[in-house]
């Protein structure tokens, strides 16, 4: 932890995919700020919750949920609000960047891809709206990726969703702004989670990617935490409808 955001203490935070990869680092980061964190994911996260309680003296609320089940996702948000107070920070983080060839994509696969990478983001935003209005405001952080900005091939369903998330963020920021609800996108570069290392990282691929970065260090999940805390906190109170890129300088904006 390199920064402290006092307004995040006791904040009610809801994170999708908060028990592994980048999501686990985010859960830890918010707990370190004294926030009340609830998160969903499909696999059991009881051991992770034990680790977080030991590390922070603050146990996150794990709610088993498949985010493609929108009713279950809404129910999990309701449970988090009941336990911690109205959710005022929503982090839509869960995604699946499975590689696939355009020629192999069926309608069913396309719908499945969007059901993970785009659809739950919208309905989570929709479902926290009333509570954030009642609380006098809130912050929504939608995770995208630089993959579509780079024009990457090899997973068109995923890059389409990433671009859609950015468009959705801008539209919802306009709609939600009068109620002091901010909506921003966080677009990471190639973050070396264990999943990435297990499935796709090779010395050649990683070397080629780092060559494209201005900053030549590998990006760890922890490198994403402070930018998300900033977007969640009042430190960014006049920032909405924006895409914050954290990629070591691969793509440029503006």
TrEMBL record:
InterPro entries: KR_dom, NAD(P)-bd_dom_sf, SDR_fam. Keywords: Oxidoreductase. GO terms for molecular function: oxidoreductase activity. It holds the Pfam family adh_short_C2. Its EC number is 1.-.-.-. It comes from the Bacteria. Residues 11-193 form the Ketoreductase domain. Belongs to the short-chain dehydrogenases/reductases (SDR) family. This is SDR family oxidoreductase. It comes from Roseibium algae.
């Amino acid at each position: 932890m390199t920064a402290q955001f006092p307004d995040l203490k006791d904040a009610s935070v809801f994170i999708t995919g908060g028990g592994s990869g980048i999501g686990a680092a985010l859960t830890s980061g918010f707990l370190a700020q004294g926030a009340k964190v609830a998160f969903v994911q499909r696999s059991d996260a009881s051991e992770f919750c034990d680790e977080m309680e030991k590390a922070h003296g603050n146990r996150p609320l794990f709610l088993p949920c498949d985010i493609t089940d929108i009713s279950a996702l809404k129910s999990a948000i309701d449970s988090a609000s009941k336990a911690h107070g109205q959710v005022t920070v929503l982090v839509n983080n869960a995604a699946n960047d499975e590689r696939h060839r355009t020629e192999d994509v069926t309608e069913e696969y396309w719908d499945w891809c969007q059901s993970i990478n785009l659809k739950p983001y919208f309905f989570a935003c929709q479902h926290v709206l009333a509570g954030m209005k009642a609380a006098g405001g809130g912050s929504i952080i939608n995770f995208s990726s630089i993959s579509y900005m780079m024009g990457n091939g090899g997973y068109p369903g995923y890059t389409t969703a990433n671009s859609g998330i950015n468009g959705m963020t801008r539209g919802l920021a306009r709609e939600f702004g009068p109620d002091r609800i901010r909506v921003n996108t966080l677009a990471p570069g190639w973050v070396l989670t264990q999943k990435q290392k297990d499935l796709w990282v090779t010395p050649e691929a990683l070397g080629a990617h780092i060559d494209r970065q201005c900053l030549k260090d590998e990006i760890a999940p922890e490198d994403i935490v402070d930018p998300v805390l900033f977007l969640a906190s009042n430190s960014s109170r006049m920032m909405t409808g924006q895409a914050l890129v954290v990629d070591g300088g691969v793509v440029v904006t503006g």
